[in-house]
């Protein structure tokens, strides 16, 4: 894959897509660290919007109200000790946006075309200067279709549910079977939504991580990025 649009210092944009629970965010963050790039978690942006709407009791069906409210939202992503903090109007919402309530409804807000347009514009601005690793569900197809590197991460529903289960606190009270059902439902919503459905870009590298650990996945992606830069003579 030629990378004609790399920056003068050889930096590229890396798009990582895939279904819920595939480990995109963790992998993308670690890849960004290895490459010295900026990490952008687009899913966290949609989650922050969803949390705000839930607090305001604004239903995803009330699209006009959602769009009006979203215009005044300020969402900020900041690096934090190898991770990333998410702020909404100055408030740290990093933990709250991962609640089951937000997880269960974020796809419905994400289907609102006007909201996606607002956030996609913001995400593209973040990537203008290159050197960005961005993960989501439509990065390689919609947000950054010209990204020099595109990865589509996947894994079995059972493996993705198990990974989520291991991240939960005992107080969450969720069973592995519940998580499998939740993820299968989320897959259907993401794949069948009218606006920017979950799709693998035609020129993406498909990476099935079911039997891979996180370090193997990161190493494989970083190696591929290095190869692409080498092919470009950078």
Automatic annotation (TrEMBL):
<dbReference type="GO" id="GO:0006220">
    <property type="term" value="P:pyrimidine nucleotide metabolic process"/>
</dbReference>
<keyword id="KW-0963">Cytoplasm</keyword>
<dbReference type="Pfam" id="PF02224">
    <property type="entry name" value="Cytidylate_kin"/>
</dbReference>
<dbReference type="GO" id="GO:0015949">
    <property type="term" value="P:nucleobase-containing small molecule interconversion"/>
</dbReference>
<keyword id="KW-0547">Nucleotide-binding</keyword>
<dbReference type="InterPro" id="IPR011994">
    <property type="entry name" value="Cytidylate_kinase_dom"/>
</dbReference>
<dbReference type="GO" id="GO:0005829">
    <property type="term" value="C:cytosol"/>
</dbReference>
<dbReference type="InterPro" id="IPR027417">
    <property type="entry name" value="P-loop_NTPase"/>
</dbReference>
<keyword id="KW-0808">Transferase</keyword>
<feature type="binding site">
    <location>
        <begin position="18"/>
        <end position="26"/>
    </location>
    <ligand>
        <name>ATP</name>
    </ligand>
</feature>
<comment type="similarity">
    <text>Belongs to the cytidylate kinase family. Type 1 subfamily.</text>
</comment>
<dbReference type="GO" id="GO:0036430">
    <property type="term" value="F:CMP kinase activity"/>
</dbReference>
<protein>
    <recommendedName>
        <fullName>Cytidylate kinase</fullName>
        <ecNumber>2.7.4.25</ecNumber>
    </recommendedName>
</protein>
<dbReference type="GO" id="GO:0036431">
    <property type="term" value="F:dCMP kinase activity"/>
</dbReference>
<dbReference type="InterPro" id="IPR003136">
    <property type="entry name" value="Cytidylate_kin"/>
</dbReference>
<dbReference type="GO" id="GO:0005524">
    <property type="term" value="F:ATP binding"/>
</dbReference>
<keyword id="KW-0418">Kinase</keyword>
<feature type="domain" description="Cytidylate kinase">
    <location>
        <begin position="14"/>
        <end position="225"/>
    </location>
</feature>
<keyword id="KW-0067">ATP-binding</keyword>
């Amino acid at each position: 894959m030629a990378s004609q649009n790399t920056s003068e210092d050889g930096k590229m944009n890396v798009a990582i897509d895939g279904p819920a629970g595939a480990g995109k965010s963790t992998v993308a963050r670690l890849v960004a660290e290895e490459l010295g790039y900026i990490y952008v978690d687009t899913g966290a942006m949609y989650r922050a919007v969803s949390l705000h709407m839930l607090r305001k009791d604004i239903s995803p069906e009330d699209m006009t109200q959602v769009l009006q409210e979203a215009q005044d939202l300020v969402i900020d992503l900041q690096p934090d000790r190898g991770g990333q903090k998410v702020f909404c109007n100055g408030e740290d919402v990093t933990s709250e946006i991962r609640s089951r309530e937000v997880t269960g409804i974020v796809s419905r807000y994400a289907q609102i075309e006007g909201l996606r347009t607002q956030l996609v514009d913001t995400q593209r601005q973040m990537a203008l200067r290159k050197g960005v690793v961005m993960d989501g569900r439509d990065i390689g197809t919609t947000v950054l279709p010209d990204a020099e590197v595109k990865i589509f991460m996947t894994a079995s529903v059972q493996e993705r549910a198990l990974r989520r289960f291991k991240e939960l606190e005992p107080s969450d009270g969720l069973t592995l079977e519940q998580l499998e059902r939740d993820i299968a439902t989320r897959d259907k919503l993401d794949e069948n939504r009218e606006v920017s459905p979950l799709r693998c870009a035609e020129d993406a590298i498909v990476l099935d991580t079911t039997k891979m650990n996180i370090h193997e996945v990161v190493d494989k992606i970083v190696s591929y990025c290095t190869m692409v830069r080498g092919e470009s003579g950078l």
